[in-house]
Write a structure and sequence with these properties.
The protein has 305 residues and is an alpha/beta fold. It is 35% helix and 13% strand.
């Protein structure tokens, strides 16, 4: 995607740092130093004023190479609970941008921290209701519920929605995840394995969003002011960051309900949907996270690497 918009790009190897036993850990152990060497020479070629890392394991060799070359490093943490990659990278950071104030005490004390929020793609707020209804083929006046289980879909959420369908007096737009489509479309139920450019239009016609609690999804929901039912990934299947994200989101968005994944039942979902449908969307919350991050990066533009 990056070369297509005219930006120079260099890929580097990295290894995933797993917290559990896997034979891949032995292979990835050797990929990290290779990625560090690749990053070192890539940075020598680019001669950047500043390195910006959004997190993820690919950022680790780049950040450590940057510090060896005395290039300033700015990090961004999307979740309340910092990931392992950002915990390691934060030791070499000059500034850490945070999506949530709650992250402040979970990051190194001696590093400058700024609450910027999580950037949202601008086109998300440009949805069109007419396009949305035309795309889905919905022709009744019932409220619309948008269901999305993250980029991979969510089997537990998918099953609960299908079971609850007969008792929900609303239209359902269901993004199931690739290869996880469950049933055929009806007059009130429309399912898609994956949605990209049409997502703003689907947001525009939705009264309620049912979603996992990934940082990007929460930022979009907040920017649009939509009532939401959040079903975080169970802690047993993650490090628990989605539950903490959801709780932080609820603090500042009263039209939010949280259902723990292990407590999700058809009856519980139906009950919460009734409450949520009676809540109206709030005004859009301007998301200027990208501008705040750019202001920080621009402070380094006139400095010599």
């Amino acid at each position: 995607m990056i070369p297509e918009i005219g930006v120079k790009f260099k890929g580097v190897q990295t290894g995933k740092l797993r917290r559990y036993f896997s034979f891949k850990n032995f292979v990835d152990f050797f990929r990290l130093p290779i990625g560090f060497v690749q990053s070192y020479f890539a940075l020598l070629g680019f001669k950047p004023n500043v390195v910006f890392s959004k997190g993820g394991y690919v950022g680790i060799p780049v950040v450590y190479a940057a510090k060896l070359l005395k290039i300033p490093v700015v990090l961004h943490e999307s979740d309340v609970l910092p990931g392992l990659a950002n915990k390691l990278a934060s030791k070499k950071a000059d500034v850490i941008c945070m999506s949530y104030i709650e992250s402040k005490d979970l990051l190194p004390r001696n590093i400058k921290k700024v609450v910027t929020g999580n950037p949202v793609r601008e086109f998300i707020t440009k949805g069109d209701r007419d396009r949305g209804f035309k795309f889905c083929g919905l022709k009744n006046d019932l409220p619309v519920i948008l269901v999305m289980g993250g980029s991979q879909g969510a089997k537990h959420i998918n099953e609960a929605i299908i079971e609850a369908l007969p008792n929900i007096n609303a239209n359902i737009i269901h993004i199931t995840g690739k290869g996880k489509k469950i049933m055929d479309n009806t007059d009130q139920y429309k399912s898609y394995e994956y949605i990209n450019k049409e997502l703003p239009d689907l947001y525009a016609i939705s009264r309620v969003v049912i979603s996992r609690a990934g940082a990007n999804s929460l930022a979009e929901i907040a920017a649009l002011g939509l009532p939401s039912i959040l079903i975080p990934i169970a802690k047993a299947a993650s490090r628990g960051e989605q539950t903490i994200n959801a709780q932080a989101h609820k603090k500042t968005h009263s039209n939010t309900w949280i259902i723990a994944d292990e407590e999700l039942t058809t009856e519980k979902l139906e009950e919460v949907i009734l409450f949520a449908l009676n809540k109206d969307p709030k005004k859009h919350t301007p998301n200027n996270a990208a501008e705040k991050i750019l202001e920080i990066l621009e402070e380094y533009i006139d400095e010599k690497p």
